[in-house]
From TrEMBL:
Gene3D superfamilies: 2.70.98.10. Pfam families: Aldose_epim. This is Galactose mutarotase-like enzyme. Coiled coil: none annotated. The lineage of its organism: Bacteria, Pseudomonadati, Pseudomonadota, Alphaproteobacteria, Hyphomicrobiales. InterPro entries: Aldose_1/G6P_1-epimerase, Gal_mutarotase_sf_dom, GH-type_carb-bd, LacX.
Amino acid sequence: MSDPITIRTDTLTVVVDPLGAELSSIRRRDGVELLWQGGTAWTRRAPVLFPIVGRLTGDTLRHEGRAYTMTQHGFARDRAFRVVEASPARVVMRLSDDAASRAIFPFPFALELVHEVEGSTLTVIARVENPGPGTLPFGLGAHPGFRWPLVDDVAKEDHVVEFDANELPEALSVVGGLLGPPRPIPLDGRTLPLSEALFADDALVLPDVRSRSVRFVARRPDGSEARALAFSWEGYPDLGIWSKPTGAPFLCIEPWLSMASPVGWDGEFAEKPGVVSLAPGESRTMTWRVTV
């Protein structure tokens, strides 16, 4: 297996592991690490979610009369990607179907992840291609976890997520990993105050968000910004925000294409609400960025 690859600018150093094409580090010039480094609260750092986002009912993918076991968030995060390009500021990794993948996901596919840095910005581009003769149904999501608190001397409760557009003050509930009815959240127009209690019932799932960017902000008692991350996305209609209500020092900001199965739904995977389908020869590209 290939070693992790480092890309950098004068102000930003990023490490990407070919195992899962997963971000391992986002470090500022002053040495401050902004990506959660894994631990007992959550062992991962920024997994790629493919070919599903969230859970399927009974962890079962149904296709043409057969049932395949597919656990939460899919298998790409645990597979070794092939490095197809590497330069000082850009790395491209690729995963394609094989006998092992087709045993649990019976579709030809190619998934390419591009990580590139410019100035203080990391851009992550995901491209899914359908090289097969039939339709390719899939979901894809990003799951980066950032340190929370962003600054050691700012309390977690003095952080907010600021949306670039007004959003509804509700999120879909999560019931056993599946999607339930909407529940209220303390979102005031464009500002979501953060607290550990916010995640007592799992992630905040925001379907069809109007916003295409958020700012994750640490504020001092006088209202000034101690630190902020600017996070934006293209091609992802949905957003998840997740941590744990148990003192876990991370916050995940997750742009999604597709979501978990709704409670009570157990049909053909290709007909699952929110699933994306590519015709033979088609591809689809999604992008997210973070500026530190």
